[in-house]
Amino acid sequence: MLKKQRGEDIIKKIEAIPGDVMLPDLGISKEDRETIKNETDIIFHCAATIRFDEPLKRAVLLNVFSHLSTAYCHLYERVLYEKVYPPPADPHHVIKTVEWMNEEVIDSVTPKILGDIPNTYAFTKALGESLVADEMDNLPVIILRPSI
Fold this sequence. Notes:
Number of strands: 0
Low-confidence stretches: none
Helix content: 40-55%
Order of helices and strands: HHHHHHH
Structural class: mainly alpha
Radius of gyration: 17 Å
Shape: globular
Strand content: under 5%
Number of helices: 7
Mean pLDDT: 85
């Protein structure tokens, strides 16, 4: 569809930028950040861990900052509409918590933090959606929720 809208030359304009969402500044080099800032119209950010049993700290630091969501993050909605749903917890509090707690402590309290959400994947993707939604008035962002 992109080729149809923008023509065949669009492929020449697409560039992959390497990074690591576990690193500061998403592991993106200073040069690539400048390229993004000065030459980019659309970003597809799809990095995530999709393991359902990922330790909570790793899942939060990977998935909460991703922009590609999933239909799986609102499990208890009978019909998933194209609207923003409230997160299962305050994403900012969860991020701060996992940043200062060690893995062993987080692992021991993960079931309590998740509540009735069955896994860290669904929990963290819902948190990430909330952060993106918070910036909708400031940035041209969208939330995509592909299903299986």
